[in-house]
Design brief:
This protein is α/β, with parallel strands linked by helices and 256 residues long. It has one domain (2-250): Rossmann fold (3-Layer(aba) Sandwich), CATH 3.40.50.300. It is 44% helix and 18% strand. It contains 12 helices and 8 strands. The protein has an 8-stranded mixed beta sheet, with helices on both faces. Helix 9 (196-205) links the parallel strand 7 (186-193) and strand 8 (211-216). The longest helix has 17 residues, at 165-181. The two termini are 13 Å apart. Residues 76-81 have low confidence and may be disordered. Bound molecules: adenosine-5'-diphosphate and magnesium ion. The site of magnesium ion (MG) has 5 residues, from helix 1. Adenosine-5'-diphosphate binds next to helix 1, strand 7 and helix 10.
Length: 256
Amino acid sequence: MKIAISGKGGVGKTTITATLSKMFSENDYNIFAVDADPDANLATTLGIPEEEAEKIKPLAELEDVIEEKNDGGGAFISLTPKVDDTLDDYAYNLDNIKFLRMGEIKQGGAGCYCKENSFLRSIVESLLTDKEEIVILDMGAGIEHLSRGTSRAVDILIIVIEASQVSIETAQTVKKMAVELGIPAVKVIANKVFDEDAEELIKDNFSDEEILGFIPFNKEVMMSAMTKGSNEQTYQALKADMEVIYNNLLRGGGSK
Ligand SMILES: Nc1ncnc2c1ncn2[C@@H]1O[C@H](COP(=O)(O)OP(=O)(O)O)[C@@H](O)[C@H]1O
Ligand SMILES: [Mg+2]
């Protein structure tokens, strides 16, 4: 199963990615958890100690690997098997989770970042098409890591929203892009749902079919966010709230 997570900043993408990753891991699934958001903090949210997290180099900055893999001067697509090794070599292992940090796709500006960008694109392609493991990509509001070619390999794009007009607007924009890219299933998770009015707002904007699940506003999660290294508390606090969503995903509620 290949899952991509998007949505406006602050809605809870990273929290949800980390919680799902740990739930999969705890249930003996092997998974790749990929930080593909420029505002990267999945490593620490997963519970990788800060000193170690700092040392994990973004794949976009692996100049040597990029040079080596680009030897042929051609497209990376044809070199996908080699990129495949890179994924295992550079992943940080935590229980059954292999963590990867993508680094930023650079655009325009002074230099040409073609090499870096096509390297990252082939990383995503390799993750989505070669790997047996579950893959969860924590993306920002932008889904530019996905291309027309790789999007069909994503089983489900989950857009996280909260009861705010801005997050709903972002969700609509992402949804439109995702449909254009040909992603087979696009669903929303409503997070931090604090009361019935909040739930109503979500239901007014998305059909039952589109809503993968609701996660209540959880004060314990908010409180543990105040303390460094409190990822385990957050996980324990949110696990029960996410059980229905987790089972929905496993049952294939994700795809189609
Ligand atoms: N269900 C929830 N209840 C309360 N707080 C939450 C919930 N989900 C996430 N949060 C908090 O919201 C903040 C933003 O979450 P985060 O996962 O970093 O968002 P994003 O990755 O979308 O930017 C964090 O402080 C997190 O602890
Ligand atoms: Mg985040």
